[in-house]
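Protein chain data
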Amino acid sequence: MFENFEIWWVTGAQLLYGGETVQIVDGHSQEMVAGLNASGNIPVKIVYKGTANSSKEVEAIMKAANNEDKCVGIITWMHTFSPAKMWIKGLQALQKPLLHFHTQYNAEIPWDTMDMDFMNLNQSAHGDREFGHICAHLRKPRKVVSGYWKDEKPQQRIAVWARVAAAWADARDMRILRFGDQMNNVAVTDGDKVEAEVRLGYHVDYYPVSSLMEYFKKVTDQEADALVEEYKQLYTIKIDESGEEVYWEKVKNAAKAEIAIRRVLKDEGAKAFTTNFDDLGGADINDPKFLGFDQIPGLASQRLMAEGYGFGAEGDWKTAALCRTVWVMSQGQGCSFLEDYTLNFNGENSSILQSHMLEVCPLIAAEKPRLEVHFLGIGIRKSQTARLVFDSKTGDGVTATVIDLGNRFRMIVNDVKCISPKPLPKLPVANALWIPQPNFEVGTEAWILAGGTHHSAMSYVITPEYWQDYAEIAGIEMVHINKDTNILDFKRELRLNEVYYMLNRAVQL
């Protein structure tokens, strides 16, 4: 996916020192961009767009970036002293994410040879401060990265922002289909869809399950059988109490559901979807003419998540969108939709079992998933149905959710430590077991105080810095629960944030 995107690099300069100086600046910039691209650390190609020497040049570049779909963000660097007033109109026009790189072409000061010409040419030390001042004056959201351009540490920080910028571009063009709308009276899975499209770019549509069933009934036995063969290669086949005949019947039904949902998503240009176990299509499952899902399409949801589609249970479109964004940022590594299910009190190892009825992404599996069929007695249809069963990997992760507070969206991020669960012989579902940081008590209390949902998008790959950059670009609130969190300071942060956003809203009005 990243190969379809690019980041534009713009170097700040001016003509005060003559055209020869600008040519040197241009040469240095080209070398630096080529070096960053060759480093292998930054996943999105950086494209050098030249030096900006006047207000008109800056404005033209920024407007061109806005109109280029491939461009997901701008990196600026002030090689020489670039008077910041010439950046005002361009920064006001810019609608793409901005990263300000505070670096320098040479690593060390050439103590023995440095003269005034060198000083006039290499002025990032104060040129970048001039640029930073105008960004602050304009209240321009941006990320600032400091460090030598050849070093891995700043390259890795640019890489984080590049992944986030690409995910932001993806989110701005995200359509989410809600099969069956949402569960009755659940507050946290709903929200202001109009404001979400304004602020986050999500376009959320209801999609009738009856229309989905039109796709379902057109899936042929041959297509379903071919997909079942794929299952046999990918997963451990485990036929349990259902018996072989029922097992393969239910697996085939799950394959048809997967094919049908994928076709709808592709035909509708959707990147994420939600389901609802109270609306599954068809009539009575005991009717010989029954045509519909035998239960919630768990296996389909698991596999489509792994493929890159965002998913949210019970109509939770915000988490579905976030799951898609996590997948884009991590490029399909170690991420999943999860739900807080039940608590395990065990002293310092007190933890939360993360699962769902069926829908946990196999990208977080510790071992090869088992394809099992079991009875599920919840929702409108109680039946045997297929699912992938596994325990998640152990290790450190980050989970996140977005909530609608009426006057703003809040992102809540929690560092978690995933540990090994005990066997669950009578609960055949995929699961993760984690200790919220800094510990169970503080982690859960802070999450609840912030209004966190019972659904979240979890990743073993991305770090909190990704979500910090994302919230900055989106212009939404973010709170981070981590090893340093204490409840007193966290409450104070929530109160201060409330004041800030109320005042900010008042200024906008």
User: Anything to note?
Assistant: The chain has a mean pLDDT of 93. The two ends are 39 Å apart (CA to CA). Residues 56 and 324 are 38 Å apart (CA to CA).
